[in-house]
UniProtKB/TrEMBL annotation:
This is MFS transporter. The chain crosses the membrane at residues 36-55, 67-85, 126-149, 155-178, 199-221, 233-253, 265-285, 291-313, 334-354, 360-380. It is a multi-pass membrane protein. The lineage of its organism: Bacteria, Bacillati, Actinomycetota, Actinomycetes, Streptosporangiales. It is found in: Cell membrane. Signal peptide: none annotated.
Length: 390
C-alpha cells in the first residue's frame, strides 16, 4: 500500500496544480474563447463518465491495474497535446484525452484498492483519501504561485509538471502487485448497465450524489456568499479551505477506524449528512451578524462542516465496499461515480441559486434537504445485505 499511497499523492499534486491554473491557461495563454473552453470541458466530462463505465467493467474482467495504468497513459498523452494546444483542433483533442484518462482512472482506482488491500480496503481507502487531500492542497498551493507569476512560461511549466506526474505514476503502477482476480475467486462479468438494476445500491448512490453538492460549497458558494453579505470578509474563504484540508488530513483515518459494521457505516453516513446540514444553518446565521460575530460564525461553520464531511465520507467509503460484490467493484464504483458526476455538473447552478436568489431561506432549505436525504439512507440500508470486505 505504500506504493499506492505514493502514486495517489503524486497524482493528486499534479491534478491540484492543473485544476488551479487550467482555466486561465486555456483562455489567457492559449487564447481560446470561454465558449470553446466550456464546450470542451463539458464534452470531456461526458467522455469521462462514459470511460468510467467502460473502465469499471474492464477493471473487473481484465484487471484494475491495467485499466488504471491505461488511464494514466491517456492522461499523459492529453498533457503532451496540451503543451501545444494553441490550435483549436489540438486543444479539443487534448481536452477529450484528459477526460477519457480521468474516467478510466476513477472506478478502476476503487477496484484496485480492493484487490490490493483485501480485508483492509476500507482503511486503505481512507488512508489514500488523506494522501489525496494533502496532494491536492499542495498542488493548489503551487498553482497559486503560478497564478501570481502570470508568465506564460510558468503556465507551461505547470502543465509539464502535471505531465511528469502522470508519467511517474504510470511507471509506478506497473510495479504494483495486484491479484488478477478477486479474493473470493469469483468472476461475474455483467452487462455494462447491470448495476443500474440494483435498486438498493442505486438508491444509496443517488442519495449520496444529491448530498455531494456540499463538495462545491467551500470553493464556490462560500466566496460568493461572503462577497454578498460581508465583502470585507472574503479572505475567510481561503482560510476555510485550509482548515477543511487540515481537519481532513488529520481526522479521516480516525473516523473510518471507528466504523466497524454495516450498521455503523449507515449511522456514520446519517450523522455526517445531518452535521453538514447543521453547518449550513450556522453559515446562514452570519448573514445579518456584526463583523466580529460573523467571523466567529464562519470559522464555526467551517469546523462543523468539515467534521460532517469527514464522518459522511467514513460511512460512504465503508458502504461502497460492504454492499458491493468484490468481483464487481469496478462496475459498482462506476455507477456510483456517474451519479456523483451528474450531481457535480448541477451543483454550481444549484448553489448559485441558493446564494443569489434564495438568500438565508435558500440555505435553510438546503440544510433541511441535506438532513432529510441523510435520514433516507436508514430506510434504504434496511434492505442491504452486508458482507465482509475482502
Amino acid at each position: 500500500m505504500t506504493l499506492l499511497a505514493l502514486i495517489t499523492g503524486v497524482n493528486a499534486v499534479g491534478n491540484g496544480l492543473y485544476a488551479t491554473i487550467s482555466a486561465l491557461y486555456f483562455t489567457s495563454v492559449l487564447g481560446h474563447s470561454l465558449g470553446l473552453v466550456s464546450a470542451v470541458l463539458f464534452s470531456a466530462m461526458v467522455l469521462a463518465m462514459a470511460a468510467d463505465l467502460a473502465g469499471g467493467r474492464l477493471a473487473d474482467t481484465k484487471g484494475p491495474r491495467q485499466v488504471f495504468q491505461a488511464g494514466l497513459v491517456v492522461s499523459l498523452a492529453g498533457m503532451v497535446a496540451m503543451l501545444a494546444a494553441g490550435q483549436v483542433v489540438v486543444f479539443v483533442i487534448a481536452g477529450l484525452l484528459a477526460g477519457i484518462g480521468q474516467g478510466l482512472c476513477m472506478s478502476s482506482n476503487v477496484a484496485l484498492i480492493r484487490r490490493a488491500a483485501g480485508a483492509d480496503a476500507v482503511m486503505a481507502r481512507a488512508t489514500l483519501r488523506t494522501f489525496l487531500t494533502a496532494g491536492l492542497a499542495l498542488g493548489g498551493l503551487i498553482g497559486a504561485g503560478v497564478l501570481a507569476v502570470r508568465a506564460p512560461e510558468a503556465y507551461l511549466f505547470a502543465i509539464a509538471v502535471n505531465l511528469v506526474t502522470f508519467l511517474w505514476c504510470a511507471l509506478l503502477t506497473g510495479s504494483l502487485d495486484v491479484p488478477s482476480s478477486p479474493a473470493n475467486g469469483l468472476q461475474r462479468p455483467a452487462g455494462l448497465f447491470h448495476v443500474y438494476r440494483d435498486v438498493r445500491f442505486m438508491a444509496f448512490a443517488v442519495i449520496s450524489a444529491l448530498i455531494s453538492v456540499h463538495n462545491h460549497v467551500l470553493p464556490f458558494a462560500v466566496p460568493l456568499w461572503l462577497a454578498i453579505t460581508h465583502p470585507q470578509l472574503t479572505w475567510l474563504a481561503g482560510i476555510a479551505m485550509v482548515i477543511n484540508t487540515v481537519l481532513g488530513v488529520v481526522l479521516q483515518i480516525h473516523a473510518n477506524g471507528r466504523v466497524s459494521s454495516g450498521r455503523g457505516a449507515l449511522l456514520s453516513f446519517l450523522l455526517g449528512g445531518v452535521t453538514i446540514g447543521a453547518s449550513y444553518l450556522v453559515f446562514a446565521w452570519m448573514a445579518q451578524a456584526p463583523l466580529v460575530t460573523a467571523v466567529i460564525l464562519v470559522l464555526g461553520f467551517v469546523v462543523i462542516y468539515s467534521l460532517g464531511e469527514i464522518v459522511l465520507a467514513a460511512g460512504a467509503i465503508d458502504l461502497q465496499f460492504r454492499v458491493v460484490p468484490g468481483e464487481m467493484q469496478g462496475q459498482y464504483s462506476a455507477a456510483f461515480g456517474t451519479m456523483h458526476g451528474l450531481a457535480a455538473a448541477a451543483a454550481p447552478a444549484v448553489l448559485g441559486l441558493v446564494v443569489s436568489s434564495g438568500g438565508v431561506l435558500g440555505w435553510l432549505v438546503l440544510a433541511a434537504a441535506t438532513g432529510l436525504l441523510a435520514s433516507m439512507v436508514l430506510v434504504v440500508g434496511r434492505k442491504f445485505e452486508f458482507q465482509p470486505v475482502g
